[in-house]
Design brief:
Layout: E1 3-5, E2 9-11, E3 29-36, E4 43-49, E5 54-61, E6 68-70, H1 88-92, E7 97-99, E8 113-119, E9 126-142, E10 146-161, E11 176-179, H2 187-195, E12 201-204, E13 212-218, E14 223-224, E15 228-229, H3 230-233, E16 240-241, E17 247-250, E18 253-256, E19 259-260, E20 270-273, H4 284-297, E21 314-316, E22 322-323, E23 326-327, E24 332-338, E25 341-347, E26 350-355, E27 358-362
Parallel strand pairs: 1-20, 5-11, 6-10
Antiparallel strand pairs: 2-12, 3-4, 3-9, 3-13, 4-5, 4-9, 6-11, 7-8, 8-9, 9-10, 12-13, 14-15, 16-17, 17-20, 18-19, 18-24, 21-27, 22-23, 24-25, 26-27
Length: 367
């Protein structure tokens, strides 16, 4: 059974003046800022689009099919268009559904246009959305660190979804979902095609709500302050892509404090990578074994009861020792092995504060 791995860095295959004359500039890479929402633990980027220019806060969905936004709330743009049924844009979006809208024509509501299925990755609700196109602006870079001009994609494909699809535990003020899946009209695929970049991107997701992460599109180097190329320091593992454009890796084992978690042969395997699940989730039998194994490593630390939901086990953080990298808690590694490659993802632990009188340590998400 597939499980979901929360991650901080994965490498995949300030608003300045905008100038349409710069659209022929060949960038080394493109960048989007990304921040972590403190309430949900999810990551949000700012999409710059429309005419006049508008900032659209959008949830980052690694496995999303495309960018979709709420068009019923103050969508004003002189460059908005809705492709007709049977158009090349519809073919590119692999949709054959012809949309009909009973209301007056407006963004998201036209007859004989293409309909696509938009998904809220948190609530898993879906809705029919109108395929549309508009101008999208994005910051370019030179040599991985020097800012270049802000460039335009004149006919960027996205979808107009009903506002009801944004209901649920989403970050405040989010107006859309930015899909990064491996399909023809996802955000990275369209950017690579429009600017002639290699079809790959990198997510550097911050673990702190007060810090800013970044998403790179195209070739490295991917430089962060102080002039560090993170692509040169990263570990790599082979990846597979599902027919739906979702990203997976093969996990051969799980280690806690360097000791391999005992599981049934073949129990650990195909693992989905996700940015819309704030905690790692495991198949139930693996999770049960993991919880017991992990708790044994912290047997000297008192537990807090009742545990903070949805977590079955919490520990008193005031009884934990300190190290130079944080609290003295067991390390968790997901070991990947394919052929001659072998590496590990180290999973960091998280905090929760259910009340001012005490603090508990979040162990793991229910599998």
């Amino acid at each position: 059974m597939a499980s979901t791995l929360h991650h901080y860095l994965l490498i995949f295959f300030s608003l300045i003046s905008l100038s349409e004359s710069q659209t022929r500039f060949k960038p080394d890479a493109l960048v989007l800022p990304v921040q972590k929402d403190p309430a949900t633990g999810l990551h949000v980027t700012q999409i710059i689009s429309r005419t006049p220019v508008t900032l659209v806060p959008s949830l980052v969905d690694l496995n999303g099919l495309f960018l979709w936004v709420n068009c019923e709330k103050h969508y004003l743009s002189s460059t908005y268009k809705a492709p007709f049924c049977g158009s090349t844009q519809c073919t590119r979006a692999t949709t054959h559904y012809c949309n009909k809208c009973p209301g007056p024509p407006r963004p998201g509501c036209h007859n004989n246009t293409c309909g696509v299925v938009a998904l809220n990755p948190v609530t898993h609700r879906t809705a029919i959305a109108e395929l549309a196109q508009d101008v999208l602006w994005i910051q370019s870079t030179r040599a991985g660190s020097n800012p270049g001009p802000t460039l335009a994609v004149q006919q960027f494909l996205f979808a107009c979804a009903p506002p009801s699809l944004l209901q649920g535990p989403l970050p405040l003020n989010v107006q859309g979902i930015a899909g990064f899946g491996h399909i023809p009209i996802s955000l990275p695929t369209q950017l690579a095609a429009d600017f002639g970049l290699n079809p790959k991107f990198a997510l550097c997701l911050t673990s702190s709500p007060v810090s800013v992460g970044v998403i790179f599109f195209g070739n490295g180097p991917y430089k962060m302050l102080p002039n560090v190329d993170i692509s040169a320091r990263a570990s790599y593992t082979p990846m597979t892509v599902s027919p739906q454009g979702e990203y997976f890796i093969q996990v051969s084992s799980i280690k806690i404090n360097g000791k391999t978690l005992p599981t049934k042969q073949g129990a650990v395997g195909t693992t989905m990578l996700s940015t819309t699940t704030p905690y790692t989730s495991l198949e139930h039998s693996i999770f049960t074994a993991f919880t017991q194994f992990f708790a044994n490593q912290l047997s000297a630390v008192p537990r807090v009861r009742p545990a903070v939901q949805p977590f079955p086990v919490c520990f008193d953080s005031t009884k934990l020792s300190s190290t130079r990298v944080g609290l003295g808690v067991p390390t968790i590694e997901f070991v990947c092995a394919t052929g001659r490659w072998r590496g590990a993802f180290t999973v960091r632990t998280r905090w929760c504060r259910p009340g001012p009188e005490w603090r508990a340590w979040r162990l793991w998400m229910v599998g």
